[in-house]
Write a structure and sequence with these properties.
The protein is mainly β and 171 residues long. The chain is 6% helix and 50% strand. The protein contains two helices and 13 strands. It has a five-stranded antiparallel β-sheet. A four-stranded mixed β-sheet has the order 8-5-13-12. The termini are far apart. The relative contact order is 0.18.
């Protein structure tokens, strides 16, 4: 509009969609229009655990696995942490995380799992959160019937079922 001898900004408005989003607003100060965009921070993380059990579902303590070059040992509840609170960011949400597990020592009286287990974790955006999209095992591990994966919330558990050593021998 004209204000005396000067042209000045009268109003600045947003389209209906932008105005309704509550994430965009416009401010007018003198001859300056400022469009303010409010970004929501997207957050997320996940944890990967290993659980060692026998064929009856009883937990096994003392199994030692190498995971991506680091040794972990199952505790009295049969669990070991593979990765804890792995942060998911805009830079990593589209990257598949891979964990390679190999048992190097079985609990006493049990057979070492013969094979390498590969777990692939993909992530996605779900509203204002990063979440686990899928957690999948390699075909060999799936075919063995000794390995399975469970996802609950932001926790992935790789369950490895151990075979007991059977038979007798004499000295």
């Amino acid at each position: 509009k004209v204000d005396g001898a000067n042209y000045v900004i009268d109003t600045a408005t947003l389209d209906e969609t932008s105005a309704a989003s509550n994430q965009v607003r416009v401010e007018v100060q003198g001859n300056t229009i400022t469009v303010i965009v409010i970004e929501e921070k997207i957050e997320g993380n996940y944890t990967v655990k290993l659980n060692k059990q026998n064929e009856q579902g009883e937990v096994l303590q003392g199994a030692v696995f190498t995971v991506n070059g680091t040794n972990i040992t199952t505790d009295a509840q049969g669990y070991a942490t593979i990765a804890e609170n792995v942060e998911i960011t805009k830079d990593t949400v589209n990257v598949v995380d891979t964990y390679t597990l190999e048992e190097i020592r079985a609990p006493e009286g049990y057979v070492v799992y013969d094979g390498v287990i590969t777990l692939n974790v993909s992530k996605k955006v779900d509203g204002a959160n990063y979440v686990i999209d899928t957690a999948t095992l390699d075909e060999t591990s799936l075919a063995s019937n000794q390995v399975r994966v469970e996802v609950q919330g932001n926790t992935i558990t790789v369950i490895v079922i151990e075979e007991k050593i059977e038979g007798a021998y004499s000295v």
